[in-house]
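Long-time lurker. I teach an intro course on protein structure, and each term I like to show students one example going from raw sequence to a predicted 3D structure in token notation. This year I'd like something fresh instead of my usual example. Would anyone be willing to generate the tokens for the chain below so I can use it in lecture? Attribution to the forum is fine with me.
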Amino acid sequence: MTTARTWAVALTGVDGHLVEVEADLSNQTPEFKIIGLPDKALGEAVQRVHNACKNAGLDLPRRRLTVNLSPASLPKQGSGFDLSIAVSTLAAGGSLSHDSIARTVHIGELGLDGRVRPVAGVLPAVFAAVRAGFERAVVPHANAAEARLVPGIEVRAATSLAEVAAWHGADVPVPDVEPVAAAAPAKEPAAMLDLADVVGQEDAVEALVIAAAGGHHLLLSGPPGAGKTMLARRLPGILPPLTEEEALEVASIRSLVGDAVDSLDRIAPLEAPHHSASVAALVGGGSRVVRPGAIVRAHRGVLFLDEAAEFSRIALDALRQPLESGAIEVHRSGFIARFPARFQLILAMNPCPCGNYGVRGAECVCPSLAIRRYSDRLSGPLRDRIDIELHVARVAAARATSAERAETTTDQARQRVAAARGRAALRLRDTPWRLNGDVPGTWLRQGAHRLSAESRAPLDRALERGALTLRGYDRVLRLAWTLADLAGVDAPGRDQVGRALYLKKGSSA
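-- Reply from a regular --
Happy to contribute to a lecture. Here you go:
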């Protein structure tokens, strides 16, 4: 047979699509051509494959070689197709077993010396292979650890093209070469920060616990030095450990970004982009290859926007849709890249450009118009999606410089959060939701979970006088249920509803 087939994976977002790599020989003018919507990097695979085969002692046939990537209508990007192209062309020339390569997915880039180089996105690619029913995948040696995180498939770690060819029946010596190292080192594990370091901010610490217990979004406002960043960076530590499924989702995103993944991290991720970040940096983008943005990298964790009012309003408003849906779609000509983006948003901002507005003993030099414009950087629709708004004041100097430790530690807060989430999950066990922050307001306003007229009276009055929108009404309801779970009561009463109203809109509500 002059035609041979194997398989590779094309990624659009975190979704993997199996691609049939079909090589054919014909008695025409010698040429090597790749068809099927390859991008520039994939088009250059011709020269990489040719040199890699030559240096591995595997000569390509001197005939016309055509490699088709099917489905042809699906755009393919990157150098991860090199190995599958080389294997299919060698099999078409009779060097490899057709049956063996047809049952195997090949992922990897080839160096000119014949070694197999690591590529990004191996973890979601192997997931796609398992879902398609394949039982064997060949991946670069540097990507083997992350590929083996996927159960139900045999993973073979390839150091060189000659090694892969020998696995498929080629009579070729396998050189003892040094494997190519991972393209990016794994991130250093973040130091665990303790809430006990936060002194004099009892209300803010409690608000952090409430946000963690219900998966609520939080806005901290206050002057510089009040501890807003210190508080926000301690939120991941009080969140429950990620489940295995959630940790695999996070690892898949890290793999797409190009980070080395060798184990599952059960700590919720924290992303804190600089306020100069563009829309594409926040939500993801790119022309041919769509890269995950900060909201995707924060999936199952925390997105912290420090100096939120300094972000462009367009970038901030781009968060509105992902906050509601828990996902982001980036549309490009010919394809749609879909990414999960279920994150907890923490915003921190100063009260004015100089930071001294309303601060006792400090002088604010900002004009009133500048203060208003600064506050309006956060649009009404975005603020409406924030569950908790809290002002954080500076701690008195005497208390801040003392050796005092806060009463609430990270371990204690984590236990309270876990207990509250357990009660919520038990109550919501027959529904598709597990956190109060995810429950639709229509469901809370109807049926068995509808609050009594007495309990919701303050909430109804706030809605009638325009202090709340209907979306804000629903968010206060979710917050009240979280307060009830933390208090260990069966349903929110007037106390929980009143406290939720205060946290949502402050004392003016």
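Some talking points for your students: The mean pLDDT is 90. The chain has 23 helices and 18 strands.
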